[in-house]
Amino acid sequence: MAVDSPLSSQLGPPACERDAKALHFIEETTSHADSVQDRVLTEILTRNSQTEYLTRFKLNGATDRETFKSKLPIITYEDLQPEIHRIANGDRSAILSAHPISEFLTSSGTSAGERKLMPTIKEELDRRRLLYSLLMPVMNLYVPGLERGKGLYFLFVKSETRTPGGLLARPVLTSYYKSDHFKTRPYDPYNVYTSPNEAILCPDSFQSMYAQMLCGLLQRQQVLRVGAVFASGLLRAIRFLQLNWPQLTQDIEIGALNPKLTDPSLREYMDKILKPNPELAECVRHECSKDNWEGIIARIWQNTKYLDVIVTGAMAQYIPTLDYYSGGLPLACTMYASSECYFGLNLNPMCKPSQVSYTIMPNMAYFEFLPHEPDSFGFPRDSPPKVVDLVDVEVGKEYELVITTYAGLYRYRVGDILRVTGFHNSAPQFHFVRRKNVLLSIDSDKTDEAELQKAVENASRLLREFNTSVVEYTSYADTRTIPGHYVIYWELLGKDSANSPTDEVLKQCCLAMEESLNSVYRQGRVADNSIGPLEIRVVKNGTFEELMDYAISRGASINQYKVPRCVNFTPIMELLDSRVVSSHFSPASPLWTPERRR
Ligand code: AMP
């Protein structure tokens, strides 16, 4: 029932008093975006004025934007490497932040093949919680009655390590789920999960997924929304159900937990809720045993109103598959966040995926925007583009996000390209265009052109003894299978037809490529099973020339034509696939351990 409160917002009538406060906060903060940004920058610079970093740039206690912008450079992660290394190695002095660095958050963006280490401080957890607390009040404006049921969310923790200096290093969501902010969150009828903490926090990904799926099936009538952080995660859960429904339904039928689940706290919890339920088991079995899994989510969880998963950016590739399994349920993208900082939320979460815009919340950090005007000829610009403030971005233009955070990142380039779609009050709203320099991505892995090139080089060494070389290559993220996998098209030049590389050798080339890819890719292959074995498709000689002819026939200039290192345009892929002479898959998993290689 909507509350008629004095805090009622222009967003719509809130569902309850608590929602009214959250919506009021959104209205206030977005209405005064510029002054909030001023306050945020002043707070960050005041508290950190004595840090080594700010002292180095001779800020001398200044907290105004002009001085800040004139004295501090815009930087990337590579520029901060020395400071990050010192902190990782145990230097506890105030290098970046006056507040102690509590841990490192390991980003899915990599540097030299390893996850980037993002310093964070304790109070950032409050900021993350604040952003989370705004999501349901907004959703309740669009989907009434969510307090009458539960959310089936597949949420996981990942492995963590310690740096040489003893700081924890783990992904931001692992940090959040293990925090008291999450574990001891107060009961909120609008945000009840079917998954217990015991399942979410179980470090074994099979046991965790199994228990979360089982809980979701047991409470299937109560489930009103189904979700995961990213689309790839939800599809992994569907795949898991495909592989494990016989055992899951048996557990439900006899009321006893699969003995493969050995985690003591998980077993204790599941033993309490699992009772023989042959009727439910039969119902799930009936749906899962059909050959056709179209609409399976809506068939099993019949009361589902929407799927809560991010399908913007690299995840857009999963929309058709999600539509298939959900029978076309609405897809809600609720927030935009990263290890560096949580940025903002979607104020119209039930809109179509292509229409999603995120409103950056001005209280989360100090935001700047570097105009992103790709120069089609690749010539350097005469002068660097002028960086603009949050409220000064222009509708229709693209920018790269630059942040200054409470945790001690100053004018840091996140690497995301955003396009302004409009404003909510004075806060701009952004369409997520893409992450810079990402060629291939299946899950949270991000492989750039240089990494792919290196992987091809390393793998092609195995061809030398066959007098064969890779003359051209391109790639494609094949997400038609679950999990998806990288496909690399190779055109080979062999000088000795009596001694061409065998299937076994080309399989080893696949593995060598995987060994060369970054740790997030390898973790996806080994620990998360979110990425399938890499495939090399050898194409006929002359195929890449045909590719060029095709591009030129469509208007590309011969002088400027470069082989695309990644393809996703259907006619091009059809051309490539029609020229495939053999296909080879990686025969084993690449090496991956939670420990960093450097
Ligand atoms: P990580 O540092 O591993 O936490 O990854 C953060 C990155 O994921 C962001 O910088 C974006 O590139 C991407 N990302 C996060 N949220 C979204 C979203 N809602 N839509 C598209 N991409 C996103």
How would you portray this structure in words?
- Helix 10 (205-218) packs across helix 11, helix 11 crosses helix 13 and helix 11 packs parallel to helix 15.
- The protein has three domains: 17-122 and 338-376 and 385-435, no CATH class; 145-160 and 172-304, no CATH class; 439-585.
- The strands form four sheets. The protein has an eight-stranded antiparallel β-sheet.
- The chain starts with 16 loop residues before the first helix and ends in a 13-residue tail after the last strand.
- The chain has helices at 17-31, 33-47, 52-56, 65-71, 77-88, 124-142, 172-177, 180-183, 197-200, 205-218, 231-254, 264-273, 278-288, 296-300, 319-326, 449-460, 503-516, 519-526, 543-553, 570-578; strands at 103-111, 114-120, 150-154, 161-162, 168-170, 223-230, 306-310, 331-332, 335-337, 342-345, 358-360, 366-371, 388-389, 398-404, 412-424, 427-435, 468-478, 485-494, 535-539, 580-585.
- The chain is built from 20 helices and 20 strands.
- It is α+β, with helices and mostly antiparallel strands and 598 residues long.
- Adenosine monophosphate binds next to strand 1, strand 9, strand 15 and strand 16.
